[in-house]
Amino acid sequence: MTKFKKFNYFDSRERKAVKRVIRSGELSGFYGNWGAKFLGGKEVVGLERNCEEFFGTKNAVSFNSLASGLSASIGALGVEPGDEIILPPWTMSATAAAVLHWGGIPVFCDVDSSTYCINPDLVESLITPKTKGILAVDIFGQSANTEKLMSIASRHNLFVISDSAQAIGAMRNNRFAGTLTHVGGISLNYHKHIHSGEGAVMFTNDGEIALRLQLIRNHAESVIGDIPNFSNLVNMVGHNYRMTEMCAAIASEQLKKLPRIIAQREEETRNLVDLLKDVDEISLPYVDSNNTHVYYIFGMQLRVDEVKFSKHELVSELSRRGVPGLSTAYVNVHRLPLFQKKTAIGTRGFPWSYEHSRKNISYAVGICPVAEELQDISFFSFYINDYILKRSDISFIARTFKQTLKDLRNSTD
Ligand SMILES: *Cc1c(COP(=O)(O)O)cnc(C)c1O
After folding, report:
1. Residues whose CB is less than 8 angstroms from the CB of residue 263 and which lie 6 or more positions away in sequence, other chains included
2. Tens digit of each residue's pLDDT (9 = 90 or more) over 161-210
3. CA–CA separation, 211 vs 224, rounded Å?
4. What is the pTM of this model?
5. How many angstroms does the Cα of residue 122 sit away from the middle of ligand 1?
6. In angstroms, what is the span from residue 91 Cα to ligand 1's centroid?
7. Rounded-to-integer distance, Cα 295 and Cα 141, Å
8. Which of 62, 64, 95, 284 is the most exposed place for a label (fewest CB within 10 A)?
9. Pocket residues: Cβ below 6 A from ligand 1
């Protein structure tokens, strides 16, 4: 059976960076009081400047995870209990948890069945007087339709946040995913395109949002009394969401490798698509014409009307024959127990039960039919980010797909 090489882009450059930090003895440069070190040490500040230059934004603010960065963003934008945030259910749970952490109410909007990103045409019907913002997810490696979302937001005076965890380095209209909305961010978690074990960077061109992100990151409550003319106390309850010097030093090295990693991923997927494009039974990833796709996940759909077997049968047979990294599902966050039972913070139904919350928010199955159908019936994926694929691996995958589909067709005819 073919042995697939695990994704690993670490070498002497990262080792050297780590040694430099260890020798310095300063494994974190943050101080929790207002002053030069409030914004972190040399490596953290260096990473943020490198990211500003690479991604082309005025401000980059690092965090110890994107879960932290998204949560800080919800806080920084002034979300209060009962405020509604519109987001897709086809994402990692952390996207929705960021909203709940501040007592905000996630309102799920169905996804586009070809890009898997939030369907902007459905957003406006979900806006209520309580709506404060839209949290878009650049899922699997390409950007959501940010122009449409930004124009809806400006009509209704909302903010837009991008969760670009899986789309680092992806472009939309020649600008980077994560930089096209009021705030956006990338994850540097071990499982992402580039990583420092754990970590994340948020982007914004708004200096005031950047400051509020920096404050929430580093014990806001204890320092705001020392900031001249600082008067907006809302959500200035801080956390310790700080990145270590070692993570930042590694991340700066990883960032230099990003273009090469993306180029390699583009070549792998081009070859795979080329070999699979004449297979009638499955639809391959669709790339919006304004986007580049960095393929964190290679998403596919079984054309169930044309076959007599299920995606579960297909994926289990492909896995048995040695194709790695396959999965029959992604996530429908609204179906998690927390939403089904509306139990998040404490036992009294907060935030849904709060007096300023709208009372009839539904998370019933059926609210996002496209995402649910994808999950239950047609969608399956190849977690391409886990591997470095050789030409022979790609031909093995394509050959196995074709043979398996043929065998399943013959056995079910
Ligand atoms: C990985 C991921 C996150 C969380 O990132 P962490 O840095 O691991 O907290 C959030 N959203 C999406 C879509 C992700 O894939």
Report:
1. none
2. 999 999 999 999 999 999 999 999 999 999 999 999 999 999 999 999 99
3. 11
4. 0.97
5. 24
6. 9
7. 5
8. 284
9. 65-67, 91-92, 94-95, 137, 163, 165-166, 187, 189, 200
